Amino acid sequence: MDNEYTVIGKPRPIGDAALKVTGQKIYVGDMELPGMLYAKVLLSTVPHARIKSIDTSAAEALPGVKAVATYKNTPQVRYNSAVRFIEHKLPDTERIFDDTVRFVGDRVAAVAAESPDIAKKAVNLIKVEYEALPVITDVEEAIKPEAWPIHEGGNIVGTSRAEAGNVDEAFQECDYVFEDRYTTQAIHHAAIEPHVAIADFAPNGKLTVYSPCQNTFAFRVIMSRIFGLSYNRIRMVAPAIGGAFGGKLEVTVEPVAAVLSQMTGKPVKVEYNRKESILSTRVRHASVNYVKTGFMKDGTLKAVDFKVYTNTGAYASSALNVSGAMSHKVFKAYKIDHMRFQCQPVYTNTEIAGAMRGYGSPQVYFGWQRQMQKIADFLHMDMADLQMKNMVDPDSCDPIFHKPHGNSRPKDCLKRALELIDYEACLKEQEATRNQDIRIGVGLALGVHGNNCVGAHRDVSTPMLKMNEDGSCIYYTGSHDMGTDTLGMQMQIVSEVLGISMDRIDCLAADTDVVHWHIGDYSSRGVFVAGSAAKKTAEAMKRELQVEAAKLLETEPDDIELHRPYIDSVTITCPECGKEMHRVPEVIDCWFDSGAMPFAQHHYPFENKDLFEQQFPADFISEAVDQTRGWFYSLLAISTLIFNKAPYKNVIVMGHVQDENGQKMSKSKGNAVDPFDALETYGADAIRWYFYVNSAPWLPNRFHGKAVMEGQRKFMGTLWNTYAFFVLYANIF
For residues 317, 323, 329 and 334, what is the CA-based torsion angle, rounded to 10 degrees? Predict the structure, then answer.
């Protein structure tokens, strides 16, 4: 594709923006199915205990209650909530309900009832007696040999290791070695939409689950394991998602809704409030990081050794996924020949940790970048220079996998960032405030994130395109839109490749019964991976169209261009009359329409003769100077041809409005100013005055906020102050 795009990168409305701002967008929490029941989950109030007894009789007796679920009457299949279709085995540590609770917020029981209020009342009637167990919240305490095992086998989930070179020998050759300990905390995603799911076990045994999740196909795998169903008996649908950030990559309330639906034979909705979501779903992994870096006097990094402990909380979840991602990422930032990395996720009696933005990057890069600043200060070296000196070069080799990094342009990104913030000016400003009470800080940090740019794992997306008889398309994708218009961007790519407008493409997404397999949407894969797949799919369709057209035209596919004038040669047999159909070949210049305006607007000469003669020729015509070739000439040519006279008596032209740099404002260039935004910001009077005094109307006029504000200050401000002074003192005498 050419660098000059017609669709990609051009401003356009987000497809569902109007629905969202008017409150008409339907989320899972808004959905109501016929006969639907409402569930409430009882969450543990203790951090670690065995359930000695659980009495649900009062809850079951409450009118309107249809089912109560506990560990006693639900599947006791262990599963992992974070299936990612990657190579390593994830520990199965969770159950829908267990006889042991392992953190405050763990699931104890759930009630399905005719209304949310009844379900809430019923949950409060459940009586639970606990046998307290030892509580461990600190990862370094949890790994001690004498620590109580939260799960069988101990508290270390596993170990991720990676090493290149000879780290220990390299440290001996370094001029300096720094060793430091850093910690990062758990953070909840706090998406606008809390966790919610609707499950519906149909009479034929098929399970349908509506969930605002990021990975419908992975969720299908997990639900299959829990309920013993084949994939064709499970349908996962992800409607609109009200924010995710990784927090909806893992199964949470979906099995609860499903088991209650199975028990009642009715659709069941489980909807957490904000407090329940924070207590019972997922957080970012807290971590303890030991970072040892050896370096030379000139700032060259020579050896690095990481030892990391991540807090996975009560269950395994994404523990090994995150630690594995760390082991890839730390080798992709700097050109260091000797590196060693070890991470051990650890069980504690705290909330479950899972996927969150960055996926392992914040934990390791926070400490490393703090240490890098320490190194820069020690060497009296600018942080930007230290980063640039050690960053990976384009197409250099990954020391672990011995494969080229590719060119993700890290140095170019850093250079551009420094330009955008005017880094040198920032440093001068910082220095100027060094001895003042209020000082300015300047920070600079580097991190590496996943997706296929740095090759975390295999990436697969399998979209499908269907072209209708009229040339419109339906785009099928397993991708999920989390409010960032991911699907719109994929449709832009399809539109660009096929040369059809966006309004002729519809999208069906994230429904396992309708679309093909997709790896999930995380680590910025929505455009990089799924978008690339969309491009390949659209190119394949275009090629098929060219092949079929070539057969009709008895030529080669490469000679087929699906636009005028080439498409005019394609003929199709009419299925009704059997005659040959073709596109109408005649195309008239669109400016003819504007040139015919004086008489065409009145439907003259067929009617309105008097009105036309009153207004023709016009006293004057006024437009910007670029309409000289277009409108002015076409008006003159057609009028002279038909009426033997000019259509206007006078021409008044206006110059173009330019941006601050003297470039013509244009939507395609992205430098146009929304007039309503300008009026809101500067006021109508200030803008009128600016255009009045800035230049003659027929000359180009540069418009930018600083110039308007300057005119406002010099004239409008003076005028207003004069008026205010007069009003204040006019009646004194």
Answer: 160
Residue 333's H or E segment, with its range, is none
Strand partners, 3: none
DSSP string, 304-327: EEEEEEEEEETS-TTHHHHHHHHH
Q: Tell me phi and psi for residue 225, to 5 degrees.
A: -65, -45
Residue predicted with more confidence, 135 or 392: 135
CA 468 from centroid of its chain's CA atoms: 30
Q: Tokens representing 197? A: 């799911």
Task: Kindly give the pairing relationship between strand 127-132 and strand 49-55.
Answer: antiparallel
The closest of 312, 414, 411, 294 to 360, measured between CA atoms, is 312
More confident residue, 591 or 208: 208
Strand partners, 162: 341
Orientation angle between helical segments 486-498 and 530-553, nearest 10 degrees: 20
Question: Alpha helix (H) ranges present in 143-269?
Answer: 167-173, 216-227, 254-264
Q: How far from 378 is each of 182, 291, 372, CA to CA, in Å?
A: 18, 17, 10
pLDDT at 623 > cutoff 70:
yes
Residues 99, 29: contact at Cβ < 8 Å?
A: no
Confidence of residue 668 (pLDDT cuts 50, 70, 90): low
Sheet with 268-271, strands from edge to edge, namely: 65-69, 107-113, 37-43, 268-271, 196-201, 207-210, 234-237
- Residue that is written with structure tokens 């763990």 in the block: 106
- In the numeric block, which tokens belong to residue 300? 């060259």
Residue type, 643: F
Q: What domains sit in the chain, N to C, each tagged with a CATH number?
A: 1-28+461-586 (3.30.365.10), 139-188+284-393+401-432 (3.30.365.10), 591-654 (no CATH), 657-729 (no CATH)
Contact between residue 375 and residue 178 where contact means Cβ atoms under 8 Å apart:
yes
Torsion of CA 166, 295, 289, 140, to 10 degrees: 70
Quote the tokens at residue 409: 């342009």
First to last CA, the chain: 78
Longest dimension (CA), the chain: 105
What confidence tens digit (pLDDT) does each residue in 20-59 have? 889 999 999 999 999 999 999 999 999 999 999 999 999 9
Least confident of 105-109, 140-144, 648-652: 648-652
* Structure-token pair, residue 610: 């008097």
Q: In the predicted model, what is the mean pLDDT of residues 281-288?
A: 96
pLDDT at residue 313 is higher than 60: yes
Nearest to 310 by CA among 139, 563, 59: 139
* Amino acid 305: pLDDT: 97
As a whole number of Å, the CA-based R_g of the chain is 34
- Rounded Cα–Cα distance for residues 727 and 704 (Å): 33
CA distances (Å), 612 to each of 231, 279, 604, 641, in order? 71, 75, 7, 17
Among 279-283, 355-359, 580-584, which range has the highest average pLDDT? 279-283
SS3 167: helix
Residue entry with tokens 């590196």: 339
